[in-house]
Design brief:
This protein is of the alpha+beta class. It has 10 helices and 10 strands. The strands form 2 sheets. Strands 3, 4, 5, 6, 7, 8, 9 and 10 form an 8-stranded antiparallel sheet that branches.
């Protein structure tokens, strides 16, 4: 990070935050300690800056540091039949909820637009329900968010990339949750995606960008691709992986080289490789805000 960027982040954080947690070396609250009114103020003030979308992702994601991990932190709201957990949760998070919340914060200018953008990111056409939620990262979540993100795996991985084919079954997924009504669900889909093998990722670290969302692929399962989602950030001292994980039951940073070495050591047990999801160039511009009503038009484009 350049000296001017460091100075900018220093001034922004001092202006916006009050003591309790450390972001870029400054003591501030994290989201767990903030009220919704405080978060609304933070969104509004940050929206007025000239930060790009990925710059705001870098900034907002730091407020999740130290927030506890809970795999059941979000669901389809209190009136849902199967997963009546919150639609928004800043007190706890998991790997996908962390990425979704950060993305929605980064494109919004107030709390209401954040809430509705979040549902557009999480659900097909923003329709809340367990059947319309984008459950599978590579099969549902990325395609439904093509208005915001692109698959940058080949762009970053080049000749290192390989292919893997798996069959995704919503019918089996919902049956596993005890849901017998499988009307209006997607049919089984056999998909082929590109990935960067774990032992080659060290050679393409320099091709990653701040704001990239990485998906780690299961090594030995044939009915699902993604095991975990993380985000590339710059903590002021260089690139890190910021993630919400049950390995520490919280949200934390790891220098990207150290993180890569850790995952290489686990490759034979758990991970096949990595995919890279990246904010589209036409979206990632200074001061960019996307209101929920504009998303349908972006999808049509």
């Amino acid at each position: 990070m350049s000296f001017l960027k460091k100075v900018f982040f220093y001034l922004l954080i001092v202006f916006l935050a009050s003591p309790n947690y450390f972001i870029y070396g400054q003591s501030v609250k994290n989201f767990q300690q903030m009220s919704h009114t405080e978060i609304d103020k933070l969104i509004r003030q940050t929206a007025k800056t000239s930060l790009t979308v990925t710059g705001k992702m870098n900034y907002f994601s730091a407020f999740f540091l130290g927030v506890p991990y809970n795999i059941h932190c979000v669901g389809d709201g209190p009136y849902a039949l199967y997963e009546p957990w919150p639609l928004v949760n800043f007190k706890e998070t998991n790997c996908m909820a962390f990425c979704e919340h950060v993305l929605a914060l980064a494109i919004s200018d107030n709390w209401d637009n954040f809430f509705n953008n979040l549902q557009q990111i999480r659900y097909k056409d923003g329709l809340i329900g367990i059947k319309t939620r984008n459950h599978y990262t590579m099969a549902d979540w990325l395609p439904q968010n093509a208005w915001l993100l692109e698959d940058a795996t080949v762009k970053a991985g080049g000749t290192f990339t390989q292919s893997v084919t798996r069959t995704i079954s919503h019918k089996q997924f919902f049956a596993g949750k005890g849901i017998s009504d499988t009307s209006c669900i997607l049919p089984d889909r056999t998909l082929t995606i590109r990935y960067i093998p774990i032992n080659d990722f060290k050679d393409v670290i320099n091709q990653t960008k701040v704001g990239d969302i990485l998906s780690l692929l299961f090594a030995k399962l044939d009915n699902i691709f993604s095991a975990h989602m993380v985000m590339v950030v710059d903590d002021g001292n260089g690139k890190c992986i910021r993630e919400s994980s049950n390995s520490r039951m919280t949200t934390f940073d790891t220098p990207i080289e150290a993180w890569t070495n850790q995952k290489m050591n686990l490759k034979s047990q758990r991970y096949l490789g990595i995919t890279i999801m990246r904010i589209k160039d036409e979206v990632n511009v200074a001061g960019k805000i996307i209101n929920p009503t504009a998303i349908k038009k972006l999808k049509n484009n």
